[in-house]
Amino acid sequence: MQEVMAKATQSKARRPKVVLTRRWPQAVEAKLAERYDLVINTSDIPFDVAAMRSALQQADAVCPTVTDFIPADLFDEDLTCRLLANFGVGYNHIPVKAAQQRGLVVTNTPDVLTDCTADLTLMLLLMVARRAGEGERELRAGHWSGWRPTHLMGTQVSGKTLGIVGMGRIGQAVARRAALGFGMKIRYHNRQPLDVSSLEQMTRQGAQIQYFAQLDEMLPGCDFLSLHCPATPETQHLMNAARLALLPPQAYLVNTARGDVVDDAALIAALEAKALRGAGLDVYQGEPKVDARLHGRNDVVLLPHLGSATIETRTAMGMRVAANLEAFFSGLEPPDLLLGG
Ligand code: 8YV
User: Fold this and answer.
1) Among residues of the chain, what percentage have pLDDT more than 70?
2) Which of 98, 147, 168, 318 has the lowest tally of Cβ within 10 angstroms?
């Protein structure tokens, strides 16, 4: 870890030692450095297992991100770390149960990235339906020969039906934008239907929202499907070949959740067979590796995990981690404590 980490602050008094596994927005790094013995991975290259082990064995708190896959057996070793304060709402990269069993507290950063991720979801949906990436590539390559009635005809978004898998904070924010901004009809699948009051604000403004207890019954009626469930053993390859086949051939899939929720090989096969019209993806199985067969396809829009990537949101995520650290080191319950994993 010595090569990849640089000590950001020195202090004579014993201050909690906090490790950031990546570079964070400057304002957050500066704020944390005022309060903690802050160690930053200035290389900004993801930690390997040895670096993570070293961090867990030297720091009081480690702040991982989505790029830190922490092996559960690291928690069998002697650790100084008492808090894993994740930078991000999703925490499938952390073996939460193993950490908690060893007495570590685990937190995440909900709420602050909801709007940002929902905005990007709508962007992907519009881009893939309206062939924006394809058009931009054509123009930049100097291949645009001018307007013509049949040029790059896409699919209308307004008024179509959007299926949402996972109606948590981000799913609801997507539903609000799609229903109220684009007059889309919403169907959703969730473990439980939401109570009427959670959707009232939208339905009072005319949103049509229908709950499906069975995902398989929802899929055939979707023009677009957007995924907003967490990655868990239950949602691993939720969108497999059989479920992709239940979508109409003119449907589009949008994934801003986690790559593991989609079977990429099945998705590529469905696109190749024209059993699906297109896909807008921000996340991938095994990212940053992306299946090379996707690169050459014009029916996909591929973004490099940008869901929460605005300066406002990434700063807010960092400040939310700061609030969790502050509460923890003051002996209080962190606001975003994850309960029994
Ligand atoms: C984050 C995300 O940027 O918060 C999440 O779950 O998917 C991203 O938008 C990333 O997880 C940072 O750790």
Assistant:
1) 96
2) 147
- Ligand 1: distance of its center to the CA of 146 in Å? 40
Residue among 53, 131, 187, 305 flagged as catalytic? 305
Kindly report the number of other CB atoms within 10 A of residue 78's CB atom: 6
Nearest C-alpha to atom 1 of ligand 1 is from which residue? 88
Is-catalytic flag, 272? Answer: no
Question: Are 308 and 256 within 8 A, CB to CB?
Answer: no
- How many H-runs (helices) and E-runs (strands) does the chain carry? 13, 13
The ligand 1 atom at the shortest distance from the C-alpha of residue 306 is 9
Q: How confident is the model at residue 340 (pLDDT cuts 50, 70, 90)?
A: confident
pLDDT tens, 174-224?
Answer: 999 999 999 999 999 999 999 999 899 999 999 999 999 999 999 999 999
Kindly report whether the global pTM for this prediction surpasses the value 0.85: yes
Sequence-distant (≥ 6) Cβ neighbours of residue 216 within 8 angstroms: 243, 246
Burial class (CB in 10 A: 0-12, 13-18, 19+), 200: exposed
Would the CA dihedral through 265, 172, 193, 208 be positive or negative? negative
Catalytic residue among 177, 243, 258, 314: 258
Sequence-separated (6 or more) residues with CB below 8 Å from residue 69: 93
Domain 114-302: give its CATH code: 3.40.50.720
Domain boundaries, given as residue ranges, for the chain: 2-112+311-329, 114-302
Structure tokens at 202: 């939208």
Give the strand order in the sheet containing 209-212.
209-212, 185-189, 161-165, 224-227, 252-255, 278-281, 300-302
> pLDDT of 27-76, one tens digit each?
999 999 999 999 999 999 999 999 999 999 999 999 999 999 999 999 99
Q: What's the rounded Cα separation, in Å, for the pair 283 and 256?
A: 6
Q: Tell me which residue has tokens 């952390």.
A: 94
